[in-house]
Write a structure and sequence with these properties.
This protein has 324 residues and is of the alpha/beta class. The chain has 10 helices and 14 strands. The protein folds into 2 domains: 197 residues, NAD(P)-binding Rossmann-like Domain (Rossmann fold, 3-Layer(aba) Sandwich), CATH 3.40.50; 115 residues, UDP-galactose 4-epimerase, domain 1. Helices cover 38% and strands 18% of the residues. It is an enzyme of class 5 (isomerase).
Length: 324
């Protein structure tokens, strides 16, 4: 297949490009390099374009044929979205509309959309499935839910086939391929823990130790980035025989507390990891764990990274030898 990976110079997008290329697909990467890295584009043709610039999108699509588009382009920092909501709605919603218009003009009818667990807001049950109430509590989550609604409307109006994949905490790396999580502003726990262990990051903080969880710290569901790439590839095939719009949650189905992650990282790194407890952050729910039963049963998704330490170990090797 010929697949356009929007945001393919970023963390998850670069792993998607690797997965597709390894299975024999023709990959084209589109990215504006605002947060992605040119060095992460190792598979396929690279097109520098911006979803907020329709002319650059038209140039990217002109003279090319794509069977499907996988869409990772987004601003994704929850706290920043609260401070800069206009920027998030412009980038995540308007940018997606521009992409969808370009797809329609060039008769590309299949899209896999990178959504998020943030569409659910504060959980009302231990395992979050697709039927859970959608009540996002920040502009980032709202922007992603807006796009999901746009995709549903586009299915009716234009026959667009789409799959939205709502994943929880992406983690891990493929150090053997030279790709991993490299954000200029890092907010994710595992890379911050590992940077602390390496002495390349700021002092590690644990935001709150008085949550109603076994050890008082937040519990999250971590899914390896390679397993996410696998799910996106399965979603492309699923649309062959399933018109309309669809959504699936992706996670391991088990939660690990912040302190459990720190302990596992210390074991992988072979050193104690020092941290300080800071006040809770606004909007952090105590527990976020996915039910991925639907993705397993319908897409046939079978995650291969099912325990915490191997996920952290892959990230550790990437951060230890990071090249960009």
């Amino acid at each position: 297949m010929k697949v356009l990976v929007c945001g393919g110079a970023g963390y998850i997008g670069s792993h998607m490009a690797q997965w597709l290329a390894e299975r024999g697909d023709t990959v084209t990467v589109l990215d504006n390099l605002s947060t992605g890295h040119r060095a992460a584009v190792k598979w396929g043709e690279f097109l520098e374009a911006d979803l907020l610039d329709p002319a650059s999108l038209e140039h990217a699509f002109a003279g090319r044929f794509f069977d499907a588009v996988v869409h990772f382009c987004a601003r994704s920092l929850v706290g920043e979205s609260v401070q800069e909501p206009y920027a998030y709605y412009a980038n995540n919603v308007t940018g997606t509309l521009n992409l969808l218009e370009a797809m329609r003009r060039h008769e590309v009818q299949r899209l896999v959309f990178s959504s998020t667990a943030a569409v659910f807001g504060s959980p009302i049950c231990d395992l979050i499935d697709e039927e859970h109430l959608k009540a996002p509590i920040n502009p980032y989550g709202v922007s992603k839910l807006m796009v999901e609604q746009i995709l549903a409307d586009a299915a009716v109006a234009y026959g667009l086939r789409s799959v939205a994949l709502r994943y929880f905490n992406a983690a891990g790396a493929l150090p053997q391929h030279g790709i991993g999580e490299a954000h200029a502003c890092e907010t994710h726990l595992i890379p911050n823990v590992l940077k602390s262990a390496l002495g390349t990051g700021p002092a590690l903080k644990v935001f709150g130790d008085d949550y109603p969880t076994p050890d008082g710290t937040c519990v999250r569901d971590y899914v390896h980035v390679q397993d996410l790439a696998q799910a996106h590839a399965l979603a492309i095939g699923y649309m062959d025989t399933n018109p309309g719009t669809h959504a699936f949650n992706l996670g391991n189905g088990q939660g690990f507390s912040v302190r459990e992650v720190i302990a596992a990282a210390g074991k992988v790194a072979g050193r104690d990891i020092v941290y300080e407890v800071a006040p809770r952050r606004t909007g952090d729910p105590a527990t976020l764990v996915a039910s991925s039963r639907k993705a397993r049963e319908i897409l046939g998704w079978r995650p291969t990274w099912t325990t915490l330490e191997p996920i952290i170990e892959s990230a550790w090797r990437w951060h230890r030898d990071q090249r960009f």
